[in-house]
Amino acid sequence: MASTALLALCSTGAFSGLAVEAGAGVCHATPIYAGHSWHQATFRLNVAGSTLSRYLRDLLVAANPDLLQHALPRKAITHLKKRSCYVSLDFEGDLRDTARHHPASFSMGNGCCVCLSSERFRCPEPIFQPGLLGQAGPGLPALAFRALQKMPETLRTRLADTVVLAGGSTLFPGFAERLDKELEAQCRRHGYAALRPHLVAKHGRGMAVWTGGSMVASLHSFQRRWITRAMYQECGSRLLYDVFN
Length: 245
Description:
245 residues, alpha/beta, six-stranded mixed β-sheet, 11 helices
């Protein structure tokens, strides 16, 4: 019913800004001004947490084909991704220099032990380079820049002052630093050097939408929007549109 981008902003106490969401199924860059989403300036990336989990599995099997003989449950792979993966601040450099890899071994809980090396930072990279998965189009930092670029000039600086990260896939170590670095580079490259985006990356941003929803629901102005069971039983589902429209 509610805009997840708006609720993400609300979790930080803001009603205007750019929400950059990276969850399980999809990534979005959504400008919000005075509580309203600008859909014509919203951009979507079809790479997110679930895609990265599948990609990690493919990387592990490519490095060690013997893993095909073992069950690699999706839940275990997702847990491994959250425990071990991080975003590189210099992907090409780290890829070339094996001395900059940080190998680590993990037990999968089924008697299978997995050793990760470059897979640790290669896993989240498609959010920044979707071409690694064969997808055309730019990564999330470029989409965030395009969202700001599409906004009226009078609003652009104000929205750039509050770039809120939200969703579980923004929790990789290094994610916020890489996004900040590349977003600033996009601004300079396209002639917006005066635009200085300020990232808001709170520790609880994996649950930012839920937190924002709970905050909105506790506002005094929201109280008239509650629907009781008796009201719903009397009017049915059309009541939702009467109340929220």
